[in-house]
Each structure stands twice: as structure tokens, then as C-alpha cells.
Design goal:
The protein has 17 helices and no strands. Helix 14 runs parallel beside helix 16 and helix 15 packs antiparallel against helix 16. The protein is mainly α. It has two domains: 198 residues, Growth Hormone, Chain: A, CATH 1.20.1250.20; 204 residues, Growth Hormone, Chain: A (Up-down Bundle), CATH 1.20.1250.20.
């Protein structure tokens, strides 16, 4: 028995290329996933000068970002089945072109063009991210290697979220925020060309079009997959709890521990670093340890996030609060990696649709989290926020239990 386990582990390690080899193969996909996050980072980082140049208030300009979330939710849901019916590179390249055009519009600098910018960026990323995740997975077929490839995409995005702000601030000293947007547009156009020149190895995209499910059949296949619905629920609940918590993070540290904005920047770095490392290491662990059930890791991560969110708002000292912040980042990252990996493993022919619906659910989660946080803060202060986010986190735990119970004893069933 012991020898069999060792053999299985060796087979798994041989079947999955190293992260470095995967990165070399997937570099256009990984770079495209990073570029997709930059436009809104530019918008958030330079919100005050952008609003001043447009002749409006920062509050008015900042509210336009909500248009991107609405667009992402609608487009992500509506286009979900199409991600599996066309070559993933074509979908990603189209989204990059749209993203580049959006940045050019934003560089014009008026309120109207930034409204269009936010709408189009939301629509573009709703198409881009699922297509890139599915394209990365398609390079490695099915199973653990495909799951690892998809989680590398999410790890790249989390790293970009952590590093993008300082990287765009330096060149902006020379060419301004308009130059940042035009630079992103140029890079997005070049990457679109690169993606169109690369072709996936999966025959599903280049031949046998009859095996691709129809529009409605994609949703039926997704709904009929073991554990797919609770998996998507975990993704949505997790996003609502985490993004809602982040929305009020600065206010909490200011009110409870009187941290200045410059000191709080270190807290934000701690959170971002924890999320990046949690996503990267969990993706590696669950897709390389053949005897480690991903569903159990998902449940452990969701349970840790529930404990951490309650502990955070009850923390009496700064070190304990910082520890909970780190645990929240790592646990939510672990859950995100498990959700993506399981969707890729279980949903073969409709994995693009699954990732697209998951992204749409995350967009909805951002709005729900902000709304629950605001309601809880207004009604009960930080105790109210803790109750609200605790309830959402508990719902994620319940959905993770449903995922675990849906797992067949012989392994997960692919859909389609």
C-alpha cells in the first residue's frame, strides 16, 4: 500500500510540469491576465487627478466603477456558454482589443468617456478572465495539471493586484495617468496579436465542433455537474465576505487602532501578500498531492475564513488584528484556488462557461459585500459588520460541505 502511494505521487509529479515550465508555456496568458487588472488600478490610483481633470468630484468619478461591475455581471453570465464554443485565444484576444479601446477612451479624460471606460472594462474582463483560465487549462487537458494551470492564472492576478499600483505610479511621473492608459492599450493590442498566433493543443477547439454543447445545453450541463452549483455558491459567498471586508478595512484600522494612511499601506501589503502566497501555494499543493482531497482543503479554508473574520472584528490588540488579516487573506486565497481547480477538473467541455459564471458570481459578490457591510455598519457598528460577514462566511462553509458531500468515492465526475 505504501509503495502504491509513492508510485501515485511520482506519477502525479511527472504528469504536472513545474511552475516555471508552465509559466514559460503560458506566458502570453499570464501576462494578459495581469494586464486585465491594470486599467481599474490606474483609475483607482489616480482617481483624484482624474476627477479634477474631468471637472467633477472624486465621489462622482469613483461611483462610475460600479458600472464595470454591472457590465461584468451581465456580460459574464450572458456570454458564459460562448467561451466553450469558440477558440479561447480568439475570445481572449477580442477582450484585449476591447480593453485597449476602453483605455484609449479613458485617456480622453471626460466624465462621459470614463463612464464608457468603466462599462467596457467590466465587459472586457468578464470575457477575458474566464477565457484565459480555460485556455491555460486546455493546454494540459484534464485533471491536476489543468487545475494547476488555471490556478497559476489566478495567482498571477493576485500578484498583479499587489504590485500594480507602485509600478504604474513611477512612469506616471513622466507621462501622467493618460500615458499609463495608452501604454496599457498598446500592450493589450500586442498581446492580442500574440494570442491569435498561438493555438491550443486541444482538438476540441480546432475540430469536432459537434461535441461543443449548445447555448442552453451548456447551462444544463453545468447545473447537472456534481457539486458545480455549491462550488459556484462558495465562490460568490467568499467574494462577498472578503471584498466587503476589504471595503471597510481602512476605516476599521483607523477607528480601532488609529493607524495613519501611510502606516495602513503596510497592512494592505500584508493582506495582498497573504492572498498571493495562499493562492500560489494552495494551487501547487492541491494539484500535486495526489492523496489530498481538494474538497477537504476547500472546507478547511472556508472554515478558517469564518473564524478569522469573527476574530478580526473582536481583536483587542493590533498584533491579533494583523494576524487575522493575514489569515483572512491566505484562507480566502486557498478557497479561491480550490474553487477554480475543482471547476476545471469537474467541468471539461464547459469549463469556460463554469469559470465565466464563477466570475459573474464574484462581480455580484462585490456588490453584495459592500451592501452588507454598509448595512451592518449603519445598524450595529463593527459588531453589525462582523455579524453580516460572519453570516456570509458561514454560508460559504455550508456550500463547501455540500461540495464535499457531492464528491463520488471514486473521484469527481466530469460534466458534459
Amino acid at each position: 500500500m505504501r509503495g502504491s502511494t509513492t508510485a501515485d505521487d511520482l506519477t502525479t509529479r511527472e504528469a504536472i510540469p513545474s511552475d516555471l515550465r508552465m509559466a514559460r508555456t503560458l506566458w502570453p496568458v499570464l501576462l494578459s491576465s495581469a494586464v486585465g487588472l491594470v486599467p481599474f488600478t490606474v483609475f483607482s490610483t489616480f482617481l483624484v487627478p482624474i476627477a479634477a481633470d474631468a471637472g467633477t468630484s472624486a465621489a462622482t468619478m469613483g461611483s462610475l466603477r460600479g458600472l464595470g461591475g454591472i457590465a461584468a455581471l451581465i456580460v459574464g453570465t450572458a456570454l458564459a456558454p460562448f467561451i466553450d464554443r469558440i477558440p479561447k485565444q480568439l475570445a481572449a484576444a477580442t477582450a484585449l482589443v476591447l480593453l485597449g479601446l476602453s483605455c484609449v477612451l479613458g485617456a480622453v479624460g471626460t466624465l462621459a468617456t470614463f463612464a464608457a471606460f468603466c462599462l467596457l472594462i467590466g465587459a472586457a474582463t468578464a470575457m477575458l478572465n474566464p477565457a484565459l483560465g480555460a485556455a491555460a487549462a486546455d493546454q494540459y487537458g484534464t485533471g491536476a495539471a489543468a487545475g494547476r494551470a488555471a490556478t497559476l492564472v489566478t495567482a498571477t492576478q493576485s500578484l498583479t493586484a499587489m504590485l500594480a499600483a507602485p509600478l504604474i505610479a513611477l512612469p506616471a511621473l513622466w507621462w501622467g495617468w493618460e500615458g499609463d492608459l495608452l501604454a496599457v492599450a498598446s500592450v493589450a493590442g500586442l498581446l492580442a496579436v500574440v494570442l491569435l498566433r498561438r493555438r491550443t493543443h486541444r482538438a476540441l477547439l480546432d475540430s469536432e465542433p459537434s461535441v461543443r454543447p449548445s447555448y442552453l445545453a451548456s447551462f444544463r450541463a453545468l447545473a447537472g455537474t456534481r457539486g458545480a452549483v455549491p462550488l459556484l455558491a462558495v465562490g460568490g459567498f467568499r467574494t462577498a465576505a472578503f471584498m466587503g471586508y476589504l471595503a471597510y478595512l481602512a476605516a476599521f484600522y483607523d477607528d480601532r487602532f488609529d493607524l495613519t494612511p501611510s502606516v495602513f499601506a503596510l497592512v494592505w501589503t500584508l493582506s495582498g501578500t497573504s492572498f498571493f502566497l495562499g493562492n500560489l501555494l494552495t494551487g501547487r499543493l492541491i494539484n500535486r498531492a495526489s492523496r489530498l482531497p481538494v474538497e477537504r482543503v476547500l472546507l478547511v479554508g472556508a472554515s478558517c475564513s469564518l473564524v478569522a473574520i469573527l476574530g478580526f472584528y473582536a481583536a483587542p490588540t493590533l498584533p491579533l488584528a494583523l494576524g487575522c488579516t493575514a489569515l483572512l487573506g491566505a484562507s480566502h486565497a486557498a478557497v479561491a484556488a480550490c474553487v477554480v481547480s475543482l471547476l476545471v477538473r469537474r467541468c471539461d467541455t464547459v469549463r469556460g462557461a463554469a469559470l465565466s459564471v464563477n466570475a459573474a458570481g464574484q462581480s455580484l459578490g462585490v456588490f453584495v459585500g459592500a451592501a452588507v457591510g454598509g448595512l451592518g455598519l449603519g445598524l450595529g457598528g463593527y459588531v453589525g459588520i462582523a455579524i453580516g460577514f460572519g453570516a456570509i462566511s458561514a454560508a460559504a462553509v455550508a456550500a463547501a460541505v455540500a461540495v464535499l458531500r457531492s464528491t463520488p468515492s471514486a473521484g469527481a465526475e466530469p460534466c458534459g
